[in-house]
Amino acid sequence: MRNIGGTLFSALLLVLLAACSAATTESTQLGLESDDAQNSQPEASAEPSAAPEASETQSPDSTSPPEACSSELQDKIELSIASQTKAFATEDFELAYSFASPSFRANVNLQAFIQVIQSSYGPLISTSELQFADCYSDQAEIVGVIDVRFVEGGSSLYALRYFVVATEEGWRVEGASNLELVASGS
Questions:
Q1: What are phi and psi of 117, to 5 degrees?
Q2: What is the pLDDT of residues 87-133, one digit of tens each?
Q3: H or E element that contains 104
Q4: CA 20 to 30 Å from 119, out of 53, 139, 143, 181?
């Protein structure tokens, strides 16, 4: 069983680190990383390494920086968010609620969830297209963040950051930043 308190802490840490590491990510994406850094491999040790302690495998290393998601991991996270958004579009709030993390559901009942979505995230209900970017996770791939932009009604562009956690059911939404109107057309 995962440590939920540690997971929440790690998710918040990921958000802070993701913002701080944007310059590093841009350098890597532009191919500005040195050849030595790209080709360096850890040397093999003559002695076998000890197995990790149980506590090391149960919670992410909060001191290591977040890593950009692999395309496979990002696809899984996107699928959960897109599925939740499709459920919003059909007003199937019970299905949308099932894409929330267990800790979120333990603290927010279905009726409160519906109220929050309708009052603070209403544009998600009439979203026509999702665009995903900047996916980061901890090294253990237990928590992650991803930026999402979407168009409401063909004219207003919104952005928010999702906080997600890996569960036995797949990736689930732990929370999201405040909805931000990025652009509006006529």
A1: -60, -50
A2: 999 999 999 999 999 999 999 999 999 999 999 998 888 876 899 99
A3: helix 102-107
A4: 143
